[in-house]
Design goal:
heterodimer; A: 402 residues; alpha/beta; Peroxisomal Thiolase, Chain A, domain 1; two-stranded antiparallel ribbon; 38% helix; B: 178 residues; alpha+beta; 2 helices
C-alpha cells in the first residue's frame, strides 16, 4: 500500500461516435479537459501534472500526440506522460495517475484519454474499418503474427473457443444475451455510440465475423475522450468541499501483463492476466467475495464472450459457470452485480485510449449517486480494463465512496 | 502585444445532455476539410538471432524450433533464451506435423497472406514442441467448418513453392493431415 490515499474528484466525457470530423483529437482533449475542470470547480492552473491515454499512433496520424494535447489543454511546462497499452490504455493511465498522487510527486493530476480512429481510410475501397484494423494489426508481433493477417475479433475469440471446448459454454445464446444487455443499457446514455433495443434473435441472425462471434457480439471503434482528476486526500477534501461533489476513493489497483504470445499460455480458456490483476486489486481493497461485496462493475466487453470469461477470471463466478450470471440476470440492471450499466464497449463504442477512463467515470457516477441507471446506495465499484494480444494486458481498480 | 480582452462573464455549467447536443449539432454540417494522407516507412528488416529459422524455411523447407537447455520447453516460433529459466535454448529440427488446440473461422479478410474471405486461424501444437503457434490452416470450402477446427484435429505444414518463398512466416501454412 502506498503512503497517500487518492481520490477521484472530477470526471468528464466526450461523446463516443463513429467520427467527429469537426474535431481534431486535441480539440476533443481540450473540451474534455474543460468539462472535467468544471466538474471539479478547478482551473488548469490547479493541475500539477497529467497522464494521457492515447493508444495508436496510426489512428492520430501522429507520433507523441501527447505533447500536442499537453500544449493545447494549457499544461505547458508541467510534467506530462503518455500511456499506451492497447485496449488497457485507459486503465493503465488511471494507474499511472494514481501513482503520481500516491507517491507524493503530484497533488492534483489530470488523467485524460482521447482517440481518433476513423480517419483511417483505404483510398481504393473507400472503406474505413479494414484500414483501421490494419493500423491495429501493428500491435501484434510483426515477425510471427501480423503477416498472417491478424485482427482483434480473431485474437479474442480464441480463448472463448478454448473455453467452449473445455466447458461446453458459453453458448451463442448466452453471448447474445450480453449483447442485448449492453446495447440496451446504452439507451439513454448520451455518450454512447450504439444504444439499441435488440433481441437474442437479432444477435444470432447477424453475420459471423470470427466464429462464433457475430457482428452484434463485437464492439465498434469510436472517436471520443474521457477524463478524471485525481487528488491527494488533503487536496481532495478541499476540492470537494468547494465543488460539492463527493470524493471517490481508489482503494485497490491491480495490474498484470501475460505473455505476448497466446501460444505460451497453458490455460488458453482462462484470461490469466485478468485473474492476476483482479486478485491483486481485491487483496489491496480487502475484498474476498467480489460478487457479494461489489455493487457495480464495468468490464472490458470488446466481445460478448470475453465479458463472460471475465466474470470467471474476476472471480464473480467459478470456472465454467460465468454464463449463469448472464443467463440468470445477475449482471443485468437490478441484478445482484450489474455489469456495464453504461453500455460497456458494445453499447458505447471503443475509443481505445479513452475507453477505460470512460468506464471509470461511469463507476464514479454510480458511487456519487448520479448515474442514469443508478444502483441504489452503490458503495463499491469495480473497473476492468483489458488490451494487447489475446487479452495479455489487464488493469483492475476498486473505487469506493467513503 | 496581445490585445487586452474584456472580462468574459463566467460560463454557465451545462448538463451532459446539453454538451452532447451541442457537439452533435456541430457535427451535422458537412462543412469540414479533409485530405488524403498516409504513414509509410520502408524497411530492410534484420531477423537477428532468428535468421536460421527464416533461412531454413526459405532455402530448405525445414522447420526449426528451439529447446531450453534447462527446463526442456520447446519454443516454436523459436527464441534463443528461455524467459522462464533465463537459460539458453538450442536449435532443433522438428517434424511438420501437429494438432489444433483451438481455432476459429474468420469471415473478415484483412490478411495479406490470402484473399480468401473465409480463413481458419488456429493455435497449433507441433508434435515436437510445447509452445503453440498461431497460424493459418487452408482448407477447401466443404472442409472449412468449425467441426474441423476443434481440439485434436491433425494438421501438417505445407510450404509455398520455392519462387514464392521470401524467408517469412508466410512461407508456409497448414493443411489438414488426413
Amino acid at each position: 500500500m502506498l503512503s497517500r490515499r487518492v481520490a477521484i474528484v472530477g470526471i468528464s466525457a466526450f461523446p463516443f461516435r463513429v467520427r467527429h470530423p469537426h474535431h481534431t483529437y486535441y480539440r476533443m482533449a481540450y473540451e474534455t479537459t474543460q468539462r472535467v475542470l468544471e466538474d471539479a470547480s478547478l482551473t488548469i492552473k490547479d493541475i500539477d501534472s497529467s497522464v494521457y491515454g492515447i493508444y495508436n499512433d496510426f489512428f492520430e496520424r501522429q507520433f507523441i500526440p501527447d505533447i500536442i494535447v499537453h500544449d493545447y489543454v494549457g499544461m505547458a511546462l508541467k510534467p506530462g506522460t503518455r500511456v499506451t497499452t492497447g485496449g488497457a490504455t485507459g486503465g493503465y493511465a488511471i494507474r499511472t495517475a494514481y501513482m503520481e498522487v500516491a507517491s507524493g510527486l503530484s497533488d492534483v493530476v489530470l488523467c485524460l484519454g482521447v482517440e481518433k480512429s476513423n480517419d483511417c481510410w483505404d483510398p481504393e475501397t473507400k472503406d474505413r474499418t479494414p484500414e483501421l484494423v490494419k493500423a491495429i494489426a501493428y500491435s501484434s508481433d510483426s515477425e510471427f503474427v501480423r503477416p498472417l493477417g491478424s485482427f482483434p475479433a480473431a485474437s479474442y475469440v480464441l480463448p472463448v473457443r478454448a473455453h467452449i471446448e473445455k466447458f461446453g459454454n458459453p453458448t451463442e445464446e448466452s453471448m447474445a444475451r450480453v449483447s442485448v444487455k449492453n446495447h440496451g443499457n446504452a439507451i439513454g446514455n448520451p455518450f454512447a455510440q450504439s444504444p439499441m433495443k435488440i433481441t437474442v434473435e437479432d444477435v444470432l441472425k447477424s453475420r459471423y465475423i470470427s466464429e462464433p462471434f457475430k457482428k452484434l457480439d463485437c464492439c465498434l471503434y469510436s472517436e471520443g475522450a474521457a477524463a478524471m482528476i485525481l487528488a491527494s486526500e488533503e487536496k481532495a477534501k478541499q476540492i470537494c468541499k468547494n465543488s460539492g461533489k463527493e470524493p471517490i476513493w481508489i482503494t485497490g489497483i491491480g495490474a498484470g501483463n501475460d505473455t505476448a504470445f497466446g501460444g505460451l499460455r497453458p490455460d488458453l480458456w482462462s484470461l490469466t492476466s485478468n485473474l492476476y490483476a483482479s486478485k491483486q486489486c481485491y487483496q489491496m481493497a480487502k475484498i474476498t467475495d467480489p460478487l457479494k461485496e461489489l455493487d457495480v462493475a464495468e468490464l472490458h466487453d470488446a466481445f460478448t464472450g470475453q465479458e463472460i470469461l471475465s466474470y470467471e477470471d474476476c472471480r464473480f463466478a467459478k470456472y465454467g459457470e460465468g454464463h449463469k450470471l448472464i443467463d440468470e440476470g445477475i449482471v443485468a440492471e437490478g441484478g445482484k452485480l450489474p455489469v456495464n450499466l453504461s453500455g460497456g464497449l458494445i453499447g458505447c463504442g471503443h475509443a481505445v485510449g479513452a475507453t477505460g477512463i470512460y468506464q471509470g467515470t461511469e463507476i464514479v457516477r454510480q458511487l456519487r449517486g448520479e448515474a442514469r441507471r443508478q444502483v441504489p446506495d452503490a458503495k463499491k465499484g469495480f473497473l476492468h480494463s483489458v488490451g494487447g494480444p489475446v487479452t495479455a494486458m489487464c488493469v483492475c481498480i476498486i473505487m469506493e465512496r467513503s | 502585444m496581445a490585445k487586452k480582452m474584456k472580462k468574459q462573464p463566467k460560463k454557465e455549467k451545462i448538463s451532459d445532455q446539453e454538451f452532447v447536443k451541442q457537439i452533435e449539432q456541430l457535427e451535422e454540417s458537412k462543412d469540414f476539410h479533409e485530405y488524403p494522407d498516409q504513414m509509410c516507412i520502408n524497411y530492410i528488416y534484420s531477423t537477428g538471432e532468428l535468421s536460421k529459422f527464416f533461412k531454413e524455411i526459405r532455402d530448405n523447407e525445414r522447420l526449426f524450433g528451439t529447446r531450453c537447455t534447462k527446463c526442456g520447453f520447446g519454443y516454436f516460433p523459436p527464441r534463443i533464451y528461455c524467459g522462464k529459466c533465463y537459460a539458453p535454448c538450442e536449435w532443433e529440427e522438428i517434424s511438420s506435423k501437429g494438432q489444433i488446440v483451438t481455432g476459429t473461422i474468420t469471415h473478415f479478410a484483412v490478411s495479406t497472406f490470402t484473399n480468401r474471405p473465409k480463413t481458419t486461424i488456429a493455435f497449433i501444437k507441433m508434435d515436437d514442441m510445447d509452445q503453440l503457434i498461431r497460424h493459418t490452416v487452408i482448407m477447401n470450402d466443404e472442409d472449412c467448418i468449425l467441426e474441423n477446427v476443434k481440439q485434436g484435429t491433425r494438421v501438417k505444414v505445407k510450404f509455398k513453392p520455392k519462387e514464392e518463398r521470401e524467408g517469412k512466416i508466410t512461407d508456409f501454412y497448414f493443411v489438414l493431415d488426413k
